[in-house]
Amino acid sequence: MAAAIPCLTASENPRSLWQPILDLGSGAHNWVERFFWFWFTDGLRAAQSPEQFTQLWTDMIQYALASLAWDPSTNHSYDLANMVCELLGFDLRMNKLGQDPAYASALASIKDVFAAAGQRWFGNPRVVNGFLNFVTEPAASALLLPSIKWLAAVVLAYEPHDWKYGLEENLIAFLHTCWERERQRISADPATQTAFLALLACVVSRGGHAAIALRDRVVNSAAA
Q1: Using CA atoms, how far apart are residues 77 and 25, in angstroms rounded to an integer?
Q2: How far apart are CA 120 and CA 88, in angstroms?
């Protein structure tokens, strides 16, 4: 079914195929997750262009953003985070979109959609963990810089028990990638620089050697 969605015209209403699946909610999370496995494989191959695929995908994300079934303030199910990660393409076992530079422009065009998704779902560290792996992929390059502020808005408020699933290591790797690729733009924008340094201070405060080494690297390169 996922492969059929990009083959439908607007008058044939592709939404009629995917909306009932998203409406199943976390009670049928396995069905929802499997749909996105096929969407990011068969659906991706069936799409006529990155722009067409991304527009259809955007419609799904925006529908979920407006749905109570996907709202973490009303749905406290543990399985919601898994559904969100699949919806947003964070399951890199199935989704190879992020590795394809041909999708970079299309993903850049939906930056605001990802910003809204961050506001809705980044309170869950499992979702953030998925994002940290996704955003360093080649196709997501336009999301890297703005995501520093998206992450600082939530990660700094995490409780000690939230730092699981490899979150600390992935956040350090994300900050390292940001500094390697975008240090000039980070340093040129006070708000982004403040958010970056706050995230860096957060991981350094946890005492890990990798975080301290990254802090020293940032300090030394900024002073050079």
Answers
A1: 10
A2: 12
